[in-house]
Design brief:
256 residues, UDP N-Acetylglucosamine Acyltransferase, domain 1, 2 domains, 10-stranded mixed sheet, 9-stranded parallel sheet, 16% helix
Length: 256
């Protein structure tokens, strides 16, 4: 299953059925679980753990040293879960000691060509990252989020579950769950209703999310008062609870 022109360090741990294409290079601290396929000209290095049934396409570079001047050779880590598709020319850095030491990718993510995921990022499950989406360090992406092509994310930004960024959005503050943003300086534009429909949300649930959006973005209330109203609404609408949890935990401030 390993092409004779691939360079796999003898200390690397690969399940017996892992496929490795020609001219790929796999370092000594790499672990790859069963069913994963590594294309040609892929570089996997550092302390990198890759789960089951991942597809990694040509010219990806995963697990390299973080692009952070504070990095001083610490044995940091990249962890990738199961069932991910990682397309051509993607670059994922390892974590830094200051950021917890781990860059983590969850399960069933669809990561298109030229996506950059910097050090200490945490990616959830079932996300889609379109071509050239770029994450600075310490960014967190929630489950089912969709990042449009060429979207740019400032360090420490958090992106809530089921949110959506349009093409070339420049995101320098956190995006609450369910919210769609757009623009060179990204602004909230509405609720990701199509995404919610695809994930089985009922018309009534989507309407509750829209009501919450209006409180947060259209009522003119200060954030503290908007959160108080959302807390009351969440007692009868549990789909609002993820939004409220996100707002209470956010440290960077939200796009508003």
């Amino acid at each position: 299953m390993i092409h004779p022109k691939a360079l796999v360090d003898p200390k690397a741990e690969l399940a017996p059925d892992v496929e490795v294409g020609p001219f790929s290079i796999i370092g000594p601290k790499v672990k790859i679980d069963s069913g994963s396929r590594i294309g040609p000209h892929v570089v996997l290095t550092g302390r990198t753990t890759i789960g089951k049934n991942n597809r990694i396409f040509q010219f990806a570079s995963l697990g390299e040293e973080p692009q952070d001047k504070k990095y001083a050779g610490e044995d940091t880590e990249l962890i990738i879960g199961d069932d991910n598709t990682i397309r051509e020319l993607c670059t994922f850095g390892r974590g830094t000691a200051q950021g917890g030491g781990v860059t983590r990718i969850g399960n069933d993510n669809w990561i298109m060509a030229c996506v950059h995921i910097a050090h200490d990022c945490i990616i959830g499950n079932h996300t889609i990252m379109a071509n050239n989406a770029t994450l600075a360090g310490h960014v967190t992406i929630g489950d089912w989020a969709i990042l449009g092509g060429y979207s740019l994310f400032h360090q420490f930004v958090e992106v809530g579950e089921h949110s959506f960024t349009s093409f070339a959005s420049h995101v320098n503050q956190s995006i609450p769950p369910y919210v769609t943003v757009a623009g060179e300086k990204a602004k909230a534009k509405g609720v990701n209703t199509e995404g919610l429909r695809r994930r089985g949300y009922s018309a009534e649930q989507i309407q509750q999310v829209r009501r919450a959006y209006r409180v947060l973005y259209r009522s003119g209330l200060p954030l503290k008062e908007a959160k108080a109203q959302l807390k009351t609404m969440s007692q009868d609408a549990p789909e609002i609870e993820p939004l409220l949890r996100f707002l209470n935990a956010s440290e960077r401030g939200i796009i508003r």
